[in-house]
Design brief:
The complex is a heterodimer. Chain A is an alpha/beta fold. Chain A folds into two domains: 9-123, 2,3-Dihydroxybiphenyl 1,2-Dioxygenase, domain 1; 140-287, 2,3-Dihydroxybiphenyl 1,2-Dioxygenase, domain 1 (Roll). Chain A is 20% helix and 35% strand. The longest helix of chain A has 13 residues, at 75-87. By secondary structure, chain B is an alpha/beta fold. Chain B folds into two domains: 6-118, 2,3-Dihydroxybiphenyl 1,2-Dioxygenase, domain 1; 135-271, 2,3-Dihydroxybiphenyl 1,2-Dioxygenase, domain 1, CATH 3.10.180.10. Classes of the chains: A alpha/beta, B alpha/beta. The A-B interface holds A 206-207, 210-211, 213-215, 218, 227-229, 276-279 and B 202-203, 206-207, 209-211, 214, 223-225, 232, 273-276.
């Protein structure tokens, strides 16, 4: 892949969430979901899921506490993104050194998509020299992707297009966005409000998905959907209800189709387009394919 | 020694062949090979049949094992009789009903009715399922045992079975490279504890979990994964309380001579490494 034909961004690198009950959220993330709790500022609960320094943090800052971190190739790419987003009338702000420090990144543009989802476009997010060592054997290997609620799909797609990101497949108007070799790293779900729908964490094998499924049942944690398999990406998933209704997902097995060599495929908005095994979501409208 | 080559078929008595057929075709996913007046023949693979429902008492159950030829059959009869088993030679008509060349019947030490068969029929037409369950074939049985140590001796010393692994004192035994063909299950009475069909992928196991749940077929264990054989599995209940299993990914024992049976503790994690708990099926109990 030459330096000119890939997107200006490379991956999803963190999620920041403003939640109501910090302690309960922290217990969920470490004791239930199986992330590694790490030290952070007093007003923040921070977690690792892989080699990165941080991938999840919780705070009670309802105004600026929620955002999704997306890694940008370089500082020059960041400059380019800043200009392009401004040209397309998106709101962008250069992060102050203090904001960058709190996010453990070298530089950042704080942007908003068309729906008002806060996207941090960041350069050189910190890695950790210590290996990831979680509190429970959930089999997590990395933060893999996010699902975002979209109230203005056209404008959101424009936002990602500016970053060089393409739609790989459609389920109804749910758009799966390819960023790297994987089928998608971001999925946009038409919704009545904005916000993070899910943060998906890759696990080692189907065994991990199933073990976590029984673990959640025993722990009386609500499974929103799954175990299942997403037909268009072939990814197996288990969607678990996390703090404030945000879904934390275990995923495995997404295809890596490489560069786009065909138009985005259209799947109908139907339950079997979201799960080929037959699992259904009963009460999350974005995942219910119109059946709720 | 009686050389079992593979398990051939299961025969199950049932008072209601119509219900049995509905379940076998719309839930289990087998293909009807033949409907007799008092028998229903079902296919799951290249064989002419692997499951036969006969009109009658559900307690009438038989398992057929293939052996090499009629000479071996004679030798087997002699061996079994010398050990005090009552052996019945099948008539030509009975053999025809089983779609085999010849067979003998006897009871194992727990009282399970076993048939040794020669030249079970294959079918030239490929197996074509009635529903997309992904079945690749009939593979093994769970067999009740009133004394697993005694029955293990029977299957491994009188017959050629080898122990692949043990859970407590319950042996999983193979007659080929496939991890197990006979799984003993401690019980108070004789009987077939489950009938296993292999499926293509773990997707099939999970798909069937949702498919059967939706149709209110009682799921009695799984979806899960056996740490012994490595198989992903789903157990569910069919007509007359018979438990059927789908599984995929059963290990093979590569080198028969060097394989040392592994010992697993008698605990839930030895039966499922994912954490599923059996519900509503008879399970191996240790003592």
């Amino acid at each position: 892949m030459s330096s000119t034909d890939h997107p200006l961004v490379t991956s999803v690198c963190y999620v920041r969430l403003a939640i109501a009950e910090l302690q309960a959220g922290a217990r969920f993330a470490s004791d239930i979901f199986g992330l590694q709790r790490v030290a952070g500022p007093d007003d923040e609960m921070a977690f690792r899921s892989d080699h990165r320094f941080r991938t999840v943090s919780f705070s009670s800052d309802a105004n600026n506490g929620s955002s999704t971190g997306v890694e940008v190739w370089s500082e020059s790419a960041l400059d380019r993104i800043e200009k392009l987003l401004r040209d397309h009338d998106f709101v962008v702000t250069r992060a102050t050194p203090d904001v960058c420090r709190r996010r453990h990144v070298r530089a950042a543009l704080l942007a908003e998509d068309g729906s008002g989802n806060k996207i941090d476009l960041v350069v050189r997010p910190s890695q950790s020299g210590r290996r990831y060592f979680p509190s429970r054997d959930a089999g997590i290997t990395c933060l893999h992707s996010v699902g975002l609620r979209s109230t203005d799909l056209d404008r959101d797609l424009e936002f990602w297009k500016v970053l060089g990101v393409q739609v790989r497949d459609w389920v109804g108007d749910i758009a799966y966005l390819q960023i790297d070799g994987f089928h998608h790293r971001v999925a946009l779900y038409p919704a009545k409000r904005n916000g993070l729908l899910y943060a998906a964490f890759e696990v080692e094998t189907l065994d991990s998905i199933m073990q976590n499924s029984y673990f959640m049942q025993e722990s009386q944690v609500r499974i929103v959907q799954g175990p299942g398999r997403e037909p268009c990406s072939e990814q197996m998933f288990l969607h678990v209800e996390g703090p404030d209704g945000v879904i934390f997902s275990y995923v495995n097995g997404m295809t890596e189709p490489g560069p786009m060599r065909r138009p985005a495929r259209q799947f109908p908005l139907a339950p079997e387009s979201l799960c080929s095994w037959g699992s259904e979501s009963k009460d999350v409208p974005e995942l219910s394919a119109g059946s709720v | 020694m009686i050389n079992l080559r593979d398990v051939s078929y299961v025969r199950l008595g049932s008072p209601d062949l119509e219900s049995a057929e509905t379940f076998a075709t719309s839930c289990l996913g087998l293909q009807v090979a033949e409907r007799g007046k008092k028998a229903l023949y079902l296919r799951s693979d290249e064989r002419s049949h692997t499951l036969c429902y006969t009109e009658g008492d559900p307690a009438d159950q038989s398992v057929g094992f293939e052996i090499e030829d009629e000479a071996s059959l004679q030798q087997a009869a002699t061996t079994l009789e010398s050990l005090g088993h009552h052996v019945e030679a099948g008539s030509a008509e009975e053999a025809q009903k089983r779609k085999v060349r010849a067979f003998i019947g006897f009871r194992d030490p727990s009282g399970n009715h076993i048939e040794l068969v020669v030249r079970p029929e294959r079918n030239g037409r490929r197996y074509f399922a009635t529903r997309d369950a992904g079945i690749t074939g009939f593979s093994h049985i769970g067999l009740n045992s009133t004394d697993p140590a005694r029955d293990e001796r029977f299957w491994t010393q009188v017959c050629n079975a080898r122990v692949s692994d043990r859970i407590g004192d319950i042996p999983l035994m193979r007659v080929s490279a496939i991890h197990h063909t006979i799984a003993l299950v401690r019980a108070t009475h004789a009987g077939i504890q489950h009938v296993n069909h292999q499926v293509q992928t773990s997707d099939d196991v999970l798909r069937s979990y949702y498919f059967l749940s939706e149709r209110r077929v009682p799921i009695v264990f799984g979806p899960g994964r056996h740490p012994t054989s490595g198989a992903r599995f789903l157990y569910f209940k069919g007509p007359d309380g018979m438990v059927f299993e789908y599984s995929v990914g059963v290990d093979e024992v590569a080198d028969d001579a060097s394989h040392q049976p592994r010992q697993f503790g008698f605990e839930p994690s030895s039966l499922c490494m994912w954490g599923s708990k059996p519900a509503g099926m008879e399970l191996p109990t240790d003592r």
